[in-house]
Design brief:
One of its GO terms (molecular function) is DNA binding. By secondary structure, this protein is mainly alpha-helical. It has 23 helices and four strands.
Length: about 475
């Protein structure tokens, strides 16, 4: 298997880091044979550790394996920032006990994605301050850029003013605004900018409606959960991971308060992704299974709306993704087949608005499973087996092209990978601009462009905000 994407790690982190990737021999599990990915960022496989020669840092002498020293560096920067262990742990989605074990060297070095979260929470601009080695590794290179409206969206999320409005909130009008916002999100190449303009007002009005005591409060809570589900698509891939947890948690809370199994399941879908991207596999699967079980008594009834079956299918697809990320081939495809069965029964015209769950997207999921399981040939055959134009959501279609590019990159077919990244950019520039997988592939292409394509690669890099 060709490790076409690991060169820059060796150059940037050496001698402070060593990537096992495809160099480990004797590995049997797919995720142990190649580079693992986590959330926004591509990461070394799970047993990678940063290593380096002996040196001193902040009174700590480091010898050989650097795992303990990195934990000490985290502790030093945390204390320097005046931050308690529970506070930092909460910001990165981990327990205080886990962070203590890292700081004390009882756990191996965290993945790169987690080191990036720690660096962002501690406002560290250079990852080398945590990893050592003397090689500058700017956090911004991997974290991506901050969208212009992020501050306004964040302010709306933390606006707890309860002053009475001049008029009672109109839940029906808010529901129509939310419906239109979903439509705009799925149809716009600049979907993040569009959401950035709509979300601040929608969040404030929906939050105000849910705080109002009255007969429509339950409906307002369900609507607010839907707004948080929409906001999840905006805060994803932004250098503010705490917002991902915030909107996922609040969406679930509103679903439980409204006592609505469907709303709970839709909010669980968002939380499952946050748990998955933090490597909390069992929690992600457990939450998805719990949400599915809540819906099972309803989905067998003829009068139940199709969307209830659609969210069950979407949750099964997420379970498949979690299994693929952890290298469980059989379990991944078993869950995919269950989800695909729901998609086929719902018919070719069905699409779940929030999750984009549909027959075409299940074909796209097959591509992603192949990529995550390091079976790029299967991924490419899945991509060739359906027409991507059938994916209604413009951002989801653009993301699919990135997944196909990943499959080509795994086979070291860099010209083909570049062609798919270009196609993704033409489809939805604001998908590729903020996608960590795409940014990492572009960094590698800028470093080693396919023959005769240097100018084209640089131009695409410029358009998506990555300098040569």
């Amino acid at each position: 298997m060709v490790d076409s994407l690991s060169g820059n790690w060796i150059e940037w982190f050496a001698p402070a880091a060593e990537v096992c990737a495809t160099r480990r021999r004797g590995s049997k599990r797919p995720y142990e044979q190649g580079i693992a990915w986590s959330g926004t960022f591509r990461t070394p496989c799970i047993s990678d550790r940063l290593v380096g020669s002996s040196h001193s840092a902040e009174g700590v002498t480091v010898h050989g394996e650097n795992s303990l020293a990195i934990g000490h560096r985290v502790k030093i920067h945390r204390e320097r920032a005046g931050m308690s262990r529970p506070v930092l742990a909460g910001l990165i989605g981990k327990s205080a006990e886990w962070l203590k074990a890292v700081e004390n060297g009882r756990l191996q070095t965290p993945r790169l994605s987690m080191l990036l979260r720690i660096a962002q929470a501690l406002e560290i601009a250079d990852l080398a301050e945590l990893t050592g080695g003397g090689h500058s590794v700017p956090v911004a290179v991997f974290a991506g850029e901050r969208h212009a409206a992020l501050t306004r969206v964040q302010a709306a999320l933390t606006d707890f003013r309860t002053a009475a409005s001049d008029r009672e909130p109109n839940v029906q009008h808010l529901a129509e605004r939310l419906r239109q916002a979903w439509q705009i999100r799925h149809s716009s190449p600049d979907h993040r900018t569009q959401l950035g303009s709509l979300l601040p007002g929608l969040l404030r009005d929906a939050q105000r409606a849910a705080r109002t005591v009255g007969p429509e409060r339950r409906s307002a809570r369900k609507l607010l959960a839907g707004v948080y589900q929409l906001a999840d698509f905006y805060v994803a891939y932004q250098p503010a991971p705490e917002l991902v947890w915030m909107v996922a948690d609040r969406g679930l809370e509103q679903g439980y308060e409204a006592d609505d199994p469907y709303v709970i399941a839709c909010s669980a879908w968002s939380m499952v992704q946050a748990l998955r991207d933090s490597g909390r596999w069992e929690e992600a699967i457990g939450l998805a299974r719990d949400a599915i079980e809540r819906l099972e008594p309803y989905v067998v009834r003829d009068e139940t709306a199709d969307d209830w079956r659609g969210i069950v299918g979407a949750l099964e697809a997420e379970i498949a993704y979690v299994h693929a990320r952890r290298g469980r081939f059989g379990e991944a495809w078993a869950a995919w087949e269950t989800a695909d069965d729901y998609a086929r029964r719902l018919g070719p015209a069905y699409r779940h608005v929030q999750t984009s769950f549909s027959a075409p997207v299940m074909s796209a999921h097959a591509v992603t499973l192949g990529v995550e399981l390091r079976r790029s040939g299967e991924a490419l055959r899945a991509a060739e087996g359906f027409d991507a134009d059938r994916i209604v959501s413009v951002p989801r279609r653009s993301r699919h092209f990135i997944e196909v590019a990943r499959a080509y990159a795994q086979r070291d077919q860099l010209a083909a990978a570049f062609a798919l990244l270009s196609k993704s950019e033409r489809t939805a520039p604001e998908t590729i601009r903020y996608n960590g997988y795409a940014r990492e592939m572009m960094l590698d292409l800028l470093k080693s462009p396919p023959s005769g394509m240097r100018a084209d690669v640089r131009e695409l890099g410029r358009r998506i905000g990555i300098a040569a």
